[in-house]
Amino acid sequence: MSKATLNLNGMTVEFQPGQTILEVARGHGIFTIPTLCYLKDTTATGSCRMCLVEVEKARTLLPACATVVNPGMVIKTESPRIDASRKMVLELLLGSGNHNCLVCEANGECELQALAYRYEVPTPSFANPPGTQYYYEDNNSMIVRDFSKCIMCGRCVRGCNERQVNQAISIGYRGSHNKIVAKADYPYIDSDCVFCGECVQSCPVGALLDKNAMHQGRSWERRHVRTTCPYCGVGCQIDLHVKGGQIVKAMGAQALPNEGRLCVKGRFGLGFVQHPDRLQTPLLRKTKNGELQEATWDEALDFVASRLKEVKEKHGPEKMGGWSSARTTNEENYLLQKLMRAVIGSNHIDHCARL
Amino acid sequence: MTNSIAELEDADCILVIGSNTNENHPVIAARIKRAARLKNKDLIVIDPRKQDLVKFSRLWLRQTPGTDIAVVNGMMNIIIQEKLYDETYVSERTENFEALKGAVAKYTPDYVEKISGVPADALAAAARMYARAKAGSIVYCMGITQHTVGTDNVKTLANLAMLCGNVGIYAGGVNPLRGQNNVQGACDMGGLPNVFSGYQPVTDANNRKKMEAAWGVKNLPDWVGMTMTDMLPAISKGGIKSLYIIGENPALTDPDSDHAIKAMQQLDLLVVQDIFLTETGKLADVVLPASSFAEKDGTFSNTERRVARVRQAIPPVGQSKPDWKIICEISNRLGYPMNYGSPEEVFEEIRQVTPAYAGISYKRLDAGGLQWPCPNEEHPGTVYLHKDRFAKGLGTFFAIDHKDPAEMPDAEYPLYLTTGRLLYQYHSGTMSRRAPGLAEKAPECQVELSATDAAKYGIAAGDRVKVRTRRGQITAKAQISAKAVPGTVFLPFHFAEASANKLTNAALDPVSKIPEYKVCAVQIEKA
Ligand code: SF4
Ligand code: SF4
Ligand code: SF4
Ligand code: FES
User: Fold this and answer.
1) Which helix (H) or strand (E) covers residue A202, if one does?
2) Which protein residues touch ligand 4 with a CB less than 6 Å away?
């Protein structure tokens, strides 16, 4: 049986049954279909109408993210008609809130801003009548909600319910009073929210913000460093956003095992790294009952080495133990057991796997 | 884990036992919840607490703490009686089936109910649900291992998985979830008393010869060393005179931590290397400031054996140095030069002496993590273990009996105490309690108890409660929770000022030397 094919921008391409237009297009290297409400690994709702494309014989433009392909379909992803429709969608979205990019945290990584630029849609002058009130929530130390920027794409809801399955938020109220609500419209801190931050990461605009990253620098000033979470054994891959030697925020990396997800510890728990309590210098107790006092590295290391030698001579290596740590790297664990076995001569090595 | 995290979404049945996954491994819980809620897969939770996953499960078996073997043996008995097991798999890939069959025969539903409180029909339903799944995955954690019968618990779960042909297949397996980020790696690297890196026993002369050649030394010790839980008690008997402790905080995390502190005070030399001045550091003769994960390069190995890069994001804080550098400098001063220019150079040495890591390099890791065993550079890594055959040939069934925990409730200490973690805190709290958001959600130690017990002892939510065992007493705020069941109270162990480990029983599993953190007898009283 020959593979099912369709026509995409004039090319004949193959597809898998059940794929959407968006998936087929991306699978064939076409990444120019703009999306806003689409979120990978969640139900396509087709609600924002940003990804509309032309399908021959279809009465209207169809959402690429939510339309399953058929054999023989003839699809166009760019055309003047499509452009006009996308522009109109953008105008409405920009007019629906207070999209002042100058002071928005998302400036530079906002998907709405990027599309406005691409389709040359300015912030409409008829936007938000003066005095319009928007919900603003800043009563916990992790997430700020600024609904003057919300475009009701629903990505946060699907991220929460389908990617993390935390079931903390939903779309509440009806029609034009639509709003994202936690429980019966409570602040996050009083709801079932577990602060995984998936919604923040899912939001295409600046409506959900990592509070600690606010005013800590623009997106383009930050370097991204891919690393592994220091907390539990899942080993989530994290992209640390760093500016000038400071960790600004943590985002879930699109890599196994987490594929973008993090929990509250990986996302909002890294404040310990640059905490003022961090040990700054070696500490040494010069006499057995004395106090721990600051020392230089040379003093401390010489002390350790000479005392280790003494204990070894006096009591033998079989009286000496070393604990490595599940919180240090493989390389460091390897070196500690090498030190204990090859240099000290003891197999009393363990770490806290048991605890 | 025998299998991988992402595979969980494809398991037909997931059995979670002794793992509070939603709080301790939230991102793995996300996969489990996706399977149950979005993909309509079966989820069975076996847990004394009504933990978060219960709400997503088809079946919740609520066993009395410390009776896992009875429950699982009961399930196996039903599976064998009803011939629901995988006969081909059992005959081709396993041995000792008759012994298992004999051992579980007495675990009739009535007998199991008497020991564990799990009703007969629920037991049968769970047995059938797990046995009928094409791919059944077992997920467990400290709730299985932190018992005096921890090793037997683990073997019992392996019995169940093999019986149903679930080991060595995609989306099946027996999947222990590692608590701390690099427990897997610390074990892989030989941070254990009996093996070099790659689990090569130190008692084997060939292994010692190989390592002696690689390290350029002679006479590596051929005896098995002590575990942490043996080293501490050995101090007062003169068996240990010095300890070099990196990144651990036994003054808080040891079961019976008061004893641990007294023991460490008797050492000739205590060296502590950490990022904070911990309770243990305060006892030390010298404290060496280490750099955190964000300040260094290296690798971690996660619970599914995936080796992934740690990359330096910021310069070392203060005068701190990465642990690898500190170890090298100590070694140099002891007359054994360690002149590695970078963690990558250390990793290159690891590859050479550790077969399972031989194919992994920093260069390959730039494209994403790799799961060991990965024997050569062309090998794609191993997504699940024991495909087609077990490392040792046949899988062995073990005949195992239920044993009561070392300490059971009695007239004086009438309740069970079980300990664990909270979503918002981590281990001894040195890291998590210094993150404002986490501290905001879980600022202090709360003792979780059921409404029934609260009423019985005249305790209201928010009251201060004295929690006492034969080893000590702490005071904590009462939290009346639907997660708790009557007769059992729960304490998290993150809080130094109300350390649950002042209370817990230091009785060890004889093989794994893991303490029984999960069960002891306790009394409570309004403070
Ligand atoms: S932080 Fe997580 S749990 Fe809370 S609303 Fe956002 S996605 Fe849901
Ligand atoms: S908060 Fe963000 S993700 Fe949620 S609906 Fe609004 S714009 Fe979309
Ligand atoms: S982000 Fe959460 S689940 Fe992921 S590794 Fe870190 S602590 Fe574990
Ligand atoms: S992305 Fe397709 S309708 Fe929103």
Assistant:
1) helix A198-202
2) A 35-38, 46-51, 63, 65-66
Q: What is the mean pLDDT of residues B104-129?
A: 96
- Comparing CB atoms, the residue among A321, A330, A343 nearest residue B231 is A321
- Taking the C-alpha atoms of residue B412 and residue A81, their distance in angstroms, rounded to an integer, is 81
What does the pLDDT average to over B399-424? 91
| ipTM above threshold 0.95 | no
The one-character DSSP state at A86 is H
Model pLDDT, residue A127: 60
Q: Give the Å distance between the CA of A63 and the centre of ligand 4.
A: 6
Average pLDDT of the segment spanning B196-204: 96
**What is the distance in angstroms between the Cα of B149 and the nearest Cα belonging to chain A?**
13
Task: Please give the order of strands across the beta sheet that includes A237-243.
Answer: A223-228, A237-243, A246-252
Contact A323 B243 (CB under 8 A): yes
Residue range A5-78 forms a domain whose CATH class is: alpha beta
Domain with CATH 2.40.40.20 in chain B: 415-526
Band (pLDDT 50/70/90 cuts) for residue A354 is low
Give the position of tokens 């404040």: A271
Measured in degrees and rounded to the nearest 5, phi and psi for residue A24 equal -65, -45
**Token pair belonging to A343:** 């240099």
Q: What's the pLDDT score for residue A131?
A: 74
Domain residue ranges in chain A: 5-78, 134-272, 282-310, 316-355
Rounded-to-integer distance, Cα B204 and Cα B201, Å: 6
> Could you say which residues from 55 to 84 on chain A have a Cβ atom under 8 Å away from some Cβ of chain B?
none
Q: What is the CATH number of domain B183-371?
A: 3.40.50.740
Chain A positions in Cβ-Cβ contact with residue B228 (cut-off 8 Å): 323, 350-352, 354-355
Compute the distance between CA of residue B334 and CA of residue A249 in angstroms, rounded to an integer: 41
Q: Which atom of ligand 1 is nearest to the CA of A167?
A: 8
pLDDT tens for each residue of B436-485: 888 888 888 999 999 999 999 999 999 999 999 998 899 999 999 998 98
Q: Could you give the CA distance from residue A151 to residue A169 in angstroms, rounded to a whole number?
A: 16
CATH of domain B415-526: 2.40.40.20
Q: Within a 10 A sphere around the Cβ of A111, how many other Cβ atoms? A: 18
* Strand-pair partners of B14: B43, B137
The CATH class of A134-272 is: alpha beta
- The confidence score (pLDDT) of residue B98 equals 95
Long-range CB contacts for residues A131-138, cutoff 8 Å, separation at least 24: A132/A98, A134/A97, A134/A98, A135/A179, A137/A187, A137/A188, A138/A211
The answer to whether B456 and B488 are in contact (CB under 8 A) is no
